[in-house]
Amino acid sequence: MSVLPFSSRSQTTALKQPKQLFCYARDIDNKFLFDEEEVRKNHVKYYYLPDSELDRGIDLSAGIAKFQKIPLEDNLAQFDQFLIALEQWEQHEQKKVDVDVIAFRGVMRKLMTAIYDGDNNNEQDDEYTCSVVGFDGQVFIAENAEYESKRLQRERSAPPDEYRAKCEYSGYKFETIATMDKPWSETTRTELSQRYQKQVNNYEQYLVGVRTGIHDIKVLMGAEVDCVWDYMPSEKGFKQVLDHYVELKTSRTIETPKQMLQFETKLFRTWAQCFLIGVKKIVYGFRDAKLVLRTVESYLTEEVPKMIKENPVNKNPVHKRVNCMQALKWYGSILSWLKQEVSDGKSYLLVIDQGRQQLRLESASDEQNAQLRSGQLLTERFINWRQNTSRTQPDN
Amino acid sequence: MGVPALFRWLSRKYPKIISPVIEEDVGDAEFGHADGAKYQDPNPNGELDNLYLDMNGIVHPCSHPEHKPAPETEDEMFLDIFTYTDRVLMMARPRKVLMIAVDGVAPRAKMNQQRARRFRSAQDAKLAHEEKQRQIKEKELRGEMIDNAIKGKKLWDSNAITPGTPFMDNLALALRYWVAYKLVSDPGWSDLQVIISDATVPGEGEHKLMSFIRSQRLDPSYNPNTRHAIYGLDADLIFLGLATHEPHFRVLREDVFANQSRQLRVSDHLLMSEDQKQLLRAQDAKKPFLWLHVNVLREYLQVELFNPQLPFKFDLERAIDDWVFMCFFVGNDFLPHLPSLDVRDNGIDILVNCWKRVLPRLKDYITCDGNLNIESVEKLLGALAYKEDEIFKRRHDNEKRKEENDKRRKVMQEEDKALKAQYMSTVSKGKEKAPLAPVATMPLMDTSGKVVDGYANLTNKDIVNNLGTITKAHMSNAEAAAALKKLIDSKKNISAVAAVKEASESVTESTEVSESDNNTLTNDTSLTNDKKRPIGEVQEGEETEPNGDVVKMWEPGYHKRYYESKFHVSGDEAVNEVKKGLVRSYLEGISWVLLYYYQGCPSWQWYYPYHYAPFAADFVDLHEIVGDEGIQFKLGQPFRPYEQLMSVLPAASGHTLPEVFRELMSHPESEIIDFYPEDFEIDMNGKKMSWQGIALLPFIDEKRLLEAVQKKYELLTEEEMDRNTNKEAELIVSKANKNYKKFLELYTEAEEDSATPTVVKFKFLRSGLAGSAMKIAKFHIAGLLSSPLDMGNLPTLRNDQYMRVTYLQPAKTRGKSMLLNGYIPHVKALTQQDIDTITYSNNGRGNNYNRFRTPNDNRDYVNNGPSGTESYLQYQMRRGGYRAFVEGMLSGNSNNYNNNYNNNYNNNYNNNNYGQRQGRGYNNRNQNYGQNNQNYNQSHNNQNQNYGQNYGQNYNQNYGQNYNQNYGQNYNQSYNQNYGQNYNHNQNYNQNYNQNQNYNQNYNQNQNYNQNQNYNQNQNYNQNQNYGQNYGQNQNYGQNQNYGQNYNQSGHNSGYYRR
């Protein structure tokens, strides 16, 4: 077992420029599509919500009865699909992806913001756990099936909280009313006005694989991107596609200083989420107690650290506030620790221990190890793929 | 539409849309702009991205100017055009795109108006020429020497400014050269992309510009905050700017109202010395220009058109579209306007008020992206129909009143003059009035002594013999005057003597004066003044004097009279048929115009086949008239240049056409000779000015014309054939342009397939222009371009220093009237006072603004486009957001926070906060239209105005001035605690059950002015605890039950309470 205290920071924060490697999508029938061109043409959403629309009092809880919600079990992180997309990319590029860590952005974000998550009530009962597998010289991190199923059970057995359901729905509703399926010039007026009555679903997803890194450790992150600000660049300009992505979120309107601080924590987490894959813009929709959209504000990812740090109304002393730079350094230290600690062929459980303010890397049992390598994390298909390529290509 | 009329109306009603153009001294051109402002310097008028030039607005004034001597040669004209365009460009300094659009072949609908104008202009030219000859003769007889050059000079035919003429060809060459020259030589132009759409590209200039702007918006990388400016004289450009829905738009135009120098007359042209000419030219070069800020106009329209009580959502862009539609209804280039709507008569205001009343009954706005909802139009015109009778009566009354006033004034003058004329007739006051020789012609004067154009063919003998009649005609003998006038106007060559005899006879005959007829004359002096009564007509019976108004719209029954006289039909059935046809065509017309502006020309062939418009009351049962399928258009094809020339020019301008066509216009055996009448009637239609009359020219039958013209095509030379083809626009850039290399490949790389030409696509992102480019066959990179002008000493250019390609716009899709994603609003220019003026000056009874108020234009306004480049500016700061919260905390006291729960417009992000940080202020001007307004204002300077349905709770703790006005249906609980010096003004106008609980606790040690006017049937708890000196006036009107303790202690209490 290995431990990384929350106080650990890496020395440098030399960031690598994020670069998108591939994209794939999940459509409304819960099917995954891997043809890049088709995904880029048909499964990307474009942002459009003019300021004048906010005066009509959009009800973000409208239509909740018709909400097409993917069943919770099916919505567990589909790492296997991610691996398929990765495999396809590697096939196309004829080489193994040159990274040290391969993970889902959601997991990575939780690790990164762990140091400030102490007051957060999300992971009250359990210590967050994820699985780590060392394979083929790379570290694979994904959600832990056991932990997730326990969480599901907890949620099911909890008394139905209508307000909470509505809040969750409002996030998706906001995404629906603020985006269009095609660029503005190709969307008709009726389509735009019908967005408010459109059925909301959380099946449709546009997912990307982004290569980034800090210092000398390279990471491949899989993540869902909400929408594109203006257009998807053409082939030649595709390197800059990350510049066009937007993260959409909703939150409660802020009316007291306390709410402001709560929002800042949320904003910090969103920042981490965007920062990890290089999304440049964040758009927040603020809904009031009746879930009516009251205002929208947009932030640039790069200005959030400054905003939080220099908030003149924050009564907390600076050292107690959320600090993005610290989070970055912490993130660097996690990565180097993982690279160091994880060895090929072995599996681990990575636990966020808020109580002791540390990360714990526990070795997984052999049984768990086998499970993880046969479908729970690594798929057989992927393992075969890698083994075949390593045979045909000399190891470097 | 009448340009000055509309412009004047707009600038009076919305004064802040105008601001003067700041021009910097450019130094002396001869010395190469040495110390003056350069193109690349920052623009003191605010930076611009794109400039669009409606070139006809430059070519016309440069080729036949009104306020300075005309250029002698074509080359001079072109140089003039260059100088003028240079000046305009220095004012605007576009950084990305310059588009020069010359009118190409117009759609058929426009051709009729062009035809009327050109026929008129030919007629005027003929008269002017004759007048000139006459004046020359006269002056020579006096002994003055007139230069032979001037004598021989024929006035330049302005009808040459039509696509297809050699002049337009030369113009295109000249423009192309000049643009290339500037691109090569002026460093400020290095990034500029110039598109020239000359007369060979079909379409009107302004519509080519419009179509370009619309096409750019389709590019997804388009900058939604592009700053546009358009130069042109047409008032339509304002509507064009609004219709693009590009918010940062302005119009650049000359200030026609500043120091108007008089128009030069024929005699002036003859006698001006070279010095005088220079002086006039210099004066003309310094004429001031104006900006018309469409973004400020949008601000005004936001206030003007706002209506919170619609069954559908209020959408400013759609409302603006409706407004533009109504302005077109009142006046456009393609249709005659309805008799009851006239810009001069506040026609637009009348129609807008009808719209405001009708809109709550509709399901949606009247227009949608250029499509009309016919039922809504019917309802709108139905509302107008109610007012038609009244409008006509009022117009007539106004006219009569004016006439009476004029008469009274003129009677005085004329008495004076008549006396002088009688007793001092031998004293020559002016050469014109004292003939030195037995002149064969006798100049006629009207009753106030001015010379009237035209003359009576009378010899001296005739004059002497008929002195009595003539003198009487010079005085206020109306009948004689009318008779003489009739003589002059009818262009028949009656023997002059006989005519005069006849006139004097009929004068004695018709002693009866029929009151109901009113002669309005073509001249702007009224020959018809009589001291006592309106003028009588001097005829046998039929009332068809060209300037007579038979219809008399102020009297009932005008409908029938109108149709019967204008369309020469009689009987109810026939009238109805005509009516239906008229209404149907008019609807088609108005749909056509709308589509023309919003989606592009819907049909090149369609035109309005009548000279007159129907009444608003005729627009009933529209569904029947239009049918189920609605109004459809067939696109068709534009005419070719010569076909257009043949459709538009009179025979007198035939010299601009190739020879083979000239006889078609003038030879009596020509199969289409009936299209080119030498003389034609002008129907004054109740108007006063001659140019307002309607030229009753026959409509051209397209088939016949095309047949006749196309027969001659084989006789044309190759060059002439080339002039007859429609082409594409061109893009010219300098070598430094980002796309230069790509374009170069078009010329340097061998074409793969000669059948399909290579097309290079480029996106907006790179250089600010989107579209595709193709090679131009005649452009050779290694070649040279020499100046097409003989004058001016312009150098020869090398083609490798610039690039010319054919330019194609991005493919067209259906336009939408919406703002684009990423739009950042400008810094608001209107103050609360301006907004109030608009809101309260129209009470539905038409225009009540003070006509004599000097328009306070926006002198110091600099239009910088968007208020910033940060993307968060896209959204207004509203309560509930994070930024808003932080800002709110900062701008109030530490324990207070401004929570302004504002749902609606007029929230200004960058606003004036007195004493607080500029630019990042929080708006304390709350205008709440709509529902749910809770204003918690704790701070300085609060103005809370709640209109509409306000469930407002106004808690105002005010340190400072508190001004609360609550109008409309208000649930107002106004709780005002005023510390310090307070001017507490609470006016509550309420219409419903409102609990107005006015708690006014005023702790003052100072003077306290309390005016609480509560007009309501409510319960007023007035606890006025006024300590100190109180001048309190509590006026409670209505049924008020005052519970309350009114403590007024000490000091002066001059409060009085009314029950």
From TrEMBL, chain A:
GO-annotated molecular function: endonuclease activity; metal ion binding; mRNA 5'-diphosphatase activity; nucleotide binding; RNA binding
Gene Ontology CC entries for this record: cytosol; nucleus
EC numbers on record: 3.6.1.-
InterPro entries: RAI1, RAI1-like_fam
RAI1-like domain mapped to chain residues: 16-382
Keywords annotated in UniProt: Endonuclease, Hydrolase, Metal-binding, Nuclease, Nucleotide-binding, Nucleus, RNA-binding
GO biological process, one term: NAD-cap decapping
Catalytic activity reported: a 5'-end NAD(+)-phospho-ribonucleoside in mRNA + H2O = a 5'-end phospho-ribonucleoside in mRNA + NAD(+) + H(+); a 5'-end triphospho-ribonucleoside in mRNA + H2O = a 5'-end phospho-ribonucleoside in mRNA + diphosphate + H(+); a 5'-end (N(7)-methyl 5'-triphosphoguanosine)-ribonucleoside-ribonucleotide in mRNA + H2O = a (N(7)-methyl 5'-triphosphoguanosine)-nucleoside + a 5'-end phospho-ribonucleoside in mRNA + H(+)
Location of the protein in the cell: Nucleus
Cofactor field: a divalent metal cation
PANTHER family: DECAPPING AND EXORIBONUCLEASE PROTEIN, DOM-3 RELATED
Similarity field: Belongs to the DXO/Dom3Z family.
The protein's role, per its UniProt record: Decapping enzyme for NAD-capped RNAs: specifically hydrolyzes the nicotinamide adenine dinucleotide (NAD) cap from a subset of RNAs by removing the entire NAD moiety from the 5'-end of an NAD-capped RNA.
Designated name of the protein: Decapping nuclease
Originating organism: Scheffersomyces spartinae
TrEMBL record, chain B:
GO cellular component: a single term: nucleus
Highest taxon of source: Eukaryota
Enzyme Commission designation: 3.1.13.-
Primary subcellular site in the record, as a coarse category: nucleus
Keyword rRNA processing found: yes
Domain Xrn1 helical: 313-835
Disordered, as annotated region: 504-550, 841-870, 897-1059
Protein keywords: Exonuclease, Hydrolase, mRNA processing, Nuclease, Nucleus, rRNA processing, Transcription, Transcription regulation, Transcription termination
GO molecular-function terms, A-Z: 5'-3' RNA exonuclease activity; RNA binding
Domain (Xrn1 N-terminal) ranges: 1-255
GO biological process: DNA-templated transcription termination; mRNA processing; nuclear-transcribed mRNA catabolic process; rRNA processing
Pfam families linked: XRN_M (PF17846), XRN_N (PF03159)
Cellular localisation: Nucleus
Keyword Calcium attached: no
Job of this protein: Possesses 5'->3' exoribonuclease activity. Required for the processing of nuclear mRNA and rRNA precursors. May promote the termination of transcription by RNA polymerase II. Essential for vegetative cell growth and chromosome segregation. Possesses 5'->3' exoribonuclease activity. May promote termination of transcription by RNA polymerase II.
Subunit structure: Interacts with RAI1; the interaction is direct, stabilizes RAT1 protein structure and may stimulate its exoribonuclease activity. The interaction also stimulates RAI1 pyrophosphohydrolase activity, probably by recruiting it to mRNA substrates.
Family in the record: Belongs to the 5'-3' exonuclease family. XRN2/RAT1 subfamily.
UniProt name for this protein: 5'-3' exoribonuclease
Gene name linked to the record: RAT1
